Q: What sequence folds into this?
């Protein structure tokens, strides 16, 4: 535990809470995109043939599942769990790749989601360690 | 905790490592689509700047695989990973500029991420060196 006290807790630690909130938001958004795909697929700008992989129903379930996992991880990040930051970076990477594949269906949504996921990875990779130190001092 | 003695900026390298892995995976995807589902792309093969879709497919797959391997090496703090990584990301950027007519959205997003990664590697790269 001794090395935990090394290094400073800067005001940047807020980035990690930011990342946690972003994860919860983007998870919620994934679920909205998933529900849209399942219940109202006319909303999407494409015909089924022009999707890269899967059909729109399969995409709906993929979005729902990933969204749920991201929300759970987001709440864990907020409470400072180390495992959750690793899992969150992996999940955010999955979101980026998944949204790249889904970008035809609704480009603006996908671009926003990719931006949010990259921001999340930045916050966790660059400032993630500080939350552990803050938890130690608290 | 070696990174604490340097600065918080060392985290930039972990960021770069993850992002290089992601752009490698996306480039693999681009390559697979070019090889197996090239009607997904907007333009027919004749309007590409150079090469045809199957040649692009192999080029994308090759660069993508190298990027994934380099991303892992950078995460492990290898010096060569950062040099090779910067070169590969630059190559990736050029390849997506040339490939832009095929699928502009992918190219634009990847080019933006590339610039971020090059920034992370060149500005803060040496801080993870043990």
A:
């Amino acid at each position: 535990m001794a090395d935990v006290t090394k290094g400073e807790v800067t005001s940047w630690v807020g980035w990690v809470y930011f990342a946690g909130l972003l994860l919860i938001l983007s998870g919620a958004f994934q679920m909205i995109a998933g529900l849209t795909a399942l219940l109202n697929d006319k909303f999407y700008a494409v015909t089924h043939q022009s999707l890269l992989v899967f059909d729109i129903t399969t995409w709906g379930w993929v979005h729902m599942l990933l969204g749920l996992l991201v929300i759970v991880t987001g709440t864990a990040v907020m409470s400072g769990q180390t495992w959750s930051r690793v899992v969150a970076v992996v999940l955010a990477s999955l979101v980026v790749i998944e949204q790249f594949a889904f970008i035809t269906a609704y480009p603006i949504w996908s671009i926003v989601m990719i931006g949010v996921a990259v921001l999340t990875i930045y916050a966790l990779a660059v400032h993630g360690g500080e939350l552990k130190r803050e938890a130690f001092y608290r | 905790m070696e990174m604490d003695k340097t600065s918080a900026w060392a985290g930039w390298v972990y960021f770069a490592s993850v992002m290089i892995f992601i752009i490698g995976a996306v480039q693999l995807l681009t390559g697979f689509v070019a090889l197996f589902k090239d009607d997904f792309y907007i333009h027919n093969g004749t309007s590409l700047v150079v090469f045809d879709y199957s040649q692009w497919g192999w080029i994308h797959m090759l660069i993508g695989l190298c990027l994934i391997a380099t991303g892992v090496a950078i995460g492990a703090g290898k010096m060569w990973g950062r040099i090779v990584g910067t070169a590969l990301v630059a190559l990736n950027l050029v390849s997506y500029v040339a490939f832009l007519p095929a699928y502009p959205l992918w190219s634009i997003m990847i080019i933006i991420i590339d610039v971020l990664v090059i920034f992370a590697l060149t500005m803060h790269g040496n801080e993870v060196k043990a």
Observations:
- The mean pLDDT of chain B is 84.
- The interface with chain A takes residues 1, 3-5, 8-9, 11-12, 14-15, 18-19, 21-22, 25-26, 29, 33, 37, 40, 105-106, 109, 113, 116 of chain B (CB under 8 Å).
